[in-house]
Amino acid sequence: MTRLFWLRLYFLFVLAQALLVGCSVVQPAWITVVLPWPASPLNARFIATLYLMGAITALLCLFATRYAEVRIALIQIGYVTGVLLLITLPHVGEFTPTTFPYRWVIFYTIDPFVTGLLLWRWRGRDPSPAGFNPFAPLFLSYAGVLGVCGVLLLVLPTWASHLWPWTLPPILAQVYSVFLLTCALGGWFAAHEPRWSGVRIYVLANLGMLLLIIGVSLWHADRFDVGLATWIWYAICITGVFGFGVAVLRQPGAMTEGLRG
Question: What are the residue boundaries of the structural domains of the chain, listed by start?
């Protein structure tokens, strides 16, 4: 629809950015094109999976026909890009003119600003109807687990990195925290959206991300610590895949269609 032209143009821009980092899942060394800090192959590939979730989200949003379908995605993109910029600013003095992350800073200054404008422009459009979301327990549980982990990684990065199942520098712990908190934020909004159309993109993007994370984890299984943290890691990922998979399979009969009216 013509009225969604600017939203589609925006998501095309987001898709290009996400793929720029997401391609590092194939070649971890490419992460240096954007990421300001060094990352091991495992960390580079994990970051790439987080961005590929964004790519899946943006790609699906390109084909949305109503604003309700992309509302959660817009909120998440505005949050993740804005907070990534905020956690970068205290470290600006660590860079030289040669090593300064110009792409990173430019992208994450433009993105939250444009996202804010779009959210303001579309405020009040296509509001959620009253209704019960049968998958609310799934979304809230997911948001709770990721939210707690995200807060710990953000506030206590050094301590939390010691509990991580593989070697994690504190600065990357904070980068991870932003994405975990973004997923948690999306889960909160998804739990209060009774229409499948309003949560479909969130569900599919997180399902895709979790499958990619499991794949990357198995590829680098030798880099994981032997212990409880690794078992918890796989348990969370597999449980998430099962939960979101059930949501995809059951959605036609369990939730409001959301495209009527």
Answer: 2-254
